[in-house]
Amino acid sequence: MEQLAEIFSGVGITQLTLGNVTMWLIAFVLFYLAIKKGVEPLLLLPIGFGVFAANFPLTGLLEEGGLFYIFYHFGIENELIPPLIFLGLGAMTDFGPVIANPKTLLLGAAAQLGVYGAFFGALLVGFTVAEAACIGIIGGADGPTSIFLSANLAPHMMGSVAVAAYSYMALVPIIIPPIAKLLTTKEERAMVMNMTRMPSKTEKIVFPILASIVIILLVPKSAPLIAMFMLGNLFMESGVVERLTNVSRDQLMNIVTIILGVGVGSTMTAETFLNPKTIGVFAMGVVAFAFATAAGVLLAKLMNLFVKNKVNPLIGAAGVSAVPMAARVVHNMGTEANPQNYLLMHAMGPNVAGVIGTAVAAGAFIAAIL
Fold first, then answer.
1. Which residues neighbour 30 within 8 Å (Cβ) at sequence distance 6 or greater?
2. How many domains are there within the chain?
3. Model's pTM, two decimal places?
4. Listed residue (42, 70, 90) closest to 254, CA to CA
5. Does residue 319 fall inside a structural domain?
6. Which residue range is the domain that position 360 belongs to?
7. What phi and psi, each to the nearest 5 degrees, are found at residue 237?
8. Quick count: other Cβ atoms within 10 Å of Cβ 100?
9. pLDDT per residue as tens digits for the range 212-227
């Protein structure tokens, strides 16, 4: 009888809890969003399966030496995967719009005001400093940066922060338009911007090197993300390492995306996810995103009071770093107001600047809190 009892206790169904089943339902929601609705499927599908598998009892997946433990500990906790994601992003990013119109860097920086606004808001409602920083970074709409910061400051919040960040990235076409329209007139949205110059090949090669020097000297803790981002871009712009460029943005990017998604999802066990703070993360994430969008638009309007070459205020909304979705949304809004309007390349300036700004903000939080 003792042997039978021991065998029975080793069957997973005997250890299944209501919390496990609840997390399965959350995983199924992520599956639905990824498969049926097409919401960030490359991330939400592996994250959802990570949630699903991590909430089976007695598997040992999360114990030291288990598969998911290896994914999380060596890939995320040790800060390997997010920088590799940035390497791939760099190999896909064209800094031409930023080089041609440097003032768009300010619009990307302005969007980071949403990060700090949500940070102070989270502090006011009772989150710790480290938790508030992780919530604030959601406003940057940059999943890898959110994961990188959470791994450093609040690992217990990584799952909820990651899902919130990627969910709001997918909701960019829904969140940005009402805020941008509220803060602009139809005449402003219809403003046609002059075509900017085409940067030279030399400028594009020098930019990632110069940007690395300036940013990393100012915010050293941003180095893991910024260095890999700029390396990937240098691969692409140099034109002499096509194999490395292709691997960085294709095969390597795909592999690390799978490990990242499953590793993040595995942190979302019933014990860590089912608590009031999770709801707070999603609520404050909306605030962060809204503040970031509004700050970019308002700075563009302020900038127009002092510069000769006016900018369409809509491009300020692209300062959130959901590349290139935010730029496409801004372009569509401009075309809606004026069919002759073509804002895509102009919007890519603050869009790319937003990626850099969010990474810098993460580095600043790490330096200030750790």
1. 44, 45, 47, 48, 51, 163
2. 1
3. 0.86
4. 42
5. yes
6. 66-369
7. -75, -25
8. 17
9. 999 999 999 999 999 9
